[in-house]
Amino acid sequence: MKMNFMKRAFWSVKARKGKSILLLFVLTVISVLVLSGLTIQTAADQSSILAREKLGGEVSLTVDREKLISGQQNEESGGRARFQPFPIPFDSAEELTDSSYVKGYNYYSSTSALAKNFTAVGSEETAEGTEQEGFGGGGRMMAGDVSVEGILFSDSTSSFLNGDASIVEGRHLTEEDINKEVTLIEKNLAAENDLKVGDSITIANTENTESTLEIVGIYESTADMDERAQNFAFLNPYNQLFVPYTVANELKGTSETIDRAVYYMKDPADIQTFISNAESSSSIDFDQFKLDANDQLYQQMMGPIENVASFSNNVVFLVAIAGAIILALIVMMTIRERKYEMGVLLAIGEKKGKLVSQFLVEILIVAVLAMGISTLSGNLVANKMGEQLLQQEITQSEETANTPASFNSRRMPFQSSNVQDVETVNELSIHTTGEDLLKLFGIGLMVVLLSTLIPSLTVLRLNPKAILTKQD
Amino acid sequence: MSTLLHFENVSYSYKQESKLQPILSNVTAEFKRGTFYTCVGPSGSGKTTFLSLASALDSPTSGQILFEGNDIKKIGLSTFRNRHVSIVFQSYNLLPYMTALQNVITAMEITKSTNKNNKAFALEMLQKVGISEEQSRQRVLTLSGGQQQRVSIARALSCQSELILADEPTGNLDEDTASGIVDLFRELAHKENKCVIVVTHDQGLAQVSDTVISLSKGGLVFKEMRKLEKFV
Questions:
Q1: With the CA atoms of A13, A17, A22 and A26 taken in that order, what torsion angle do they form, in degrees rounded to the nearest 10?
Q2: Residue of A nearest to B80 (CA)
Q3: Sorted alphabetically, which Gene3D superfamilies does this protein's record hold (chain B) (predicted)?
Q4: Residue B59 and residue B42: Cα distance in Å, rounded?
Q5: What is the pLDDT of residues B133-148, one digit of tens each?
Q6: So what's the ipTM on this one?
């Protein structure tokens, strides 16, 4: 195979120093920007994985309140919307437990109940419950004495996982306790009522359906006391009973449903894939339910970095397109200028394909140099760019965060705020990786191929006599 | 001597103000190996068109051009130019970003030259036409018109084609160099059995050729130095 076009390309690049330097400058700018964008994206992805790891890599299947409320508002156009609770069918929750990304799961079904044969901590009355002022505009309602947390495994509930609760006596509840009348109670509740493992307590719902539960374990809670617990005993963490979710369902008068399912990922990096797979292939109705990966907290931590990543993604996209257009224009102008040369080569008997190959090699020689320069300088530029962009984003998000709470919409009583005190990630570890360089070479090659081959198609229409005659 | 190139009822016309202007009409002619032809005629008589057709830079409007009995269209115009013909252009048509030597080597590499990549052979050809080694390493644009003409001739010679076509190859050369180039063409025809066709206005050059082809009003008149034959 004759490779004389490569030799010609090299001679041409060497002889046309001015144009080669201009092309080198353009290609270097494109390469540095693309590499910086890719590097920032990689750093943001790594931060995202770290943030997910920090947040525990759990995904909750819950009712999508926002969708339901807006749906009900639409249905009752004009009327006042009332939120109807939607329990999650047990089968739907069970479907996702087979996923290869899931290492563990837990189900939750919560309610409150009246203490029948014991006294709730901080409650003045026993057995009859407390009639107190509740939410809903000054009406009177019956609130329970104890909160009943129906679960599948007690050891993987958030209270035990985050250290707010720990077993001091007895054992945890497991899936083997499903359909059994057993419970875990808090140490203070046990002490106040002189209860121990093996004893039984009786609780009842508002319709006085009773459940007698054997105490299989006692735990100690260090959770903060809710201010509202003074008025509502069931909000006191000492009055929280852990029971199999079947017990909670019985009290609520439901079966085969749960309020919430939590799935623990083997690798937090797989959260998005898990959610996407579930949304595309499960039978869960995502008009009613949603898979939530602590998104609010994640956004709080990663918001600025995600914005930077999104910006850098746009930079890569736009620079690659703009670069391809600029290069294509330069190549087009070059081809116009070099028609005479092409006429001569065609007259000698050179193949048109080899003329196109010569242009391609010329641009590639310069592109390789440009990529070399960007490999050396990309890390520095990416660091500067990334830091500056991140600081801007952090400043902006701080300004938003400083907005007084009263400016926000009113929150309903008992509606808990999921926003916890997590620190915004304010540093990006930006290092150009081999993968970034491979991506740069891939994008570079695509840009060079497109910007050279498309304008070079005009070469295929050339006739040597016409070119040389015009030149004469 | 065997026929190398054969024009068979070749006509050529071009469009001028939506009318077809004939340049050559039904020309039939044979060009043999080992012969040095000169082609003469007034301006506009179709000398360059004739050369363009013979070198496959253009195609006839009708008729056939055969090379060793094969239609050059079937051989492929590009392949024909690449393998069987060398052209010395009136305006040199050298590649400006290359040195004289690089121009010659490039042509050798593109064509099926048996000496391809042979730098020594390229230098030898350049020296044959009076280009020194030092000049051969200069960019062609730094050479004089005459020197560029000689580089253009060296490029054609280096490709070692059976058919050599030249358009006013001695127009820019001094008398001595021109004489040397003419001797070279004769030598190529007589010693290396090539078919050399030179378009010229130079009557002196026409005098030393084996056959003079006279072009007028769309026809070719072959005037052998001792015998006149008419092919119209």
A1: 40
A2: A349
A3: P-loop containing nucleotide triphosphate hydrolases
A4: 22
A5: 999 999 999 998 888 9
A6: 0.86
